[in-house]
Amino acid sequence: MKNYIYLFVILFLLISCNKKQEIRITALNPANGEPWPGLHYSITQEKTGAFSENYKVIHEGFLDANGKAVAQVKMKNASYRIDIEDPGNTCYENEVQYTFAKNDTNFDFVFELVPCGKLQINIQNTNCQGVSDTLSIYRTHSISDYYSNVPNPAIYTGCISIIGNLNNSPMGLYTYNGFAIHGGVSTPISDSIYLNEGETKIWNINY
After folding, report:
1. What is the pTM of this model?
2. Quick check: helix, strand or coil at residue 3?
């Protein structure tokens, strides 16, 4: 009976040692929900040696037509890194690479990449009543966190006239809503514009 127990333990350890972790990779454009097919990806093992860092590509391939890939990786006590090909002409990336380890609990990795268009935003107070005039607008984009690192709402006061630069900007739906105050009277204001990949647009915000 003991021999059977020992055999079972040995088999269990062998199976556990050879078990592979499923790594799931996705690349998509969050501005329109479309996938990024055909991009090259690689998984690199990073292990600290006595005097140096050792790097070894243990798996690589290409994303399928749905912008997805599944890799089976035999993991050791090391760090791992996923890199994905830069498709070029992108104005937004949520991550350029991910790192993970054997004891992690999440092995789903999503890369968000958004192509560029060119957008110029001009803001003009066309009915200025004085320095107390105010424009307050809350801005959104198809990328949920696009405006997270700038003041939002944006507030402008006085008789402003701003001619913006023509900048590379991520494609997608841009919106604003808020209010304009002239002479103490508040008026709701809102608008939207959709920028396609490779497109050039001028957005005039007149109030």
Report:
1. 0.82
2. helix
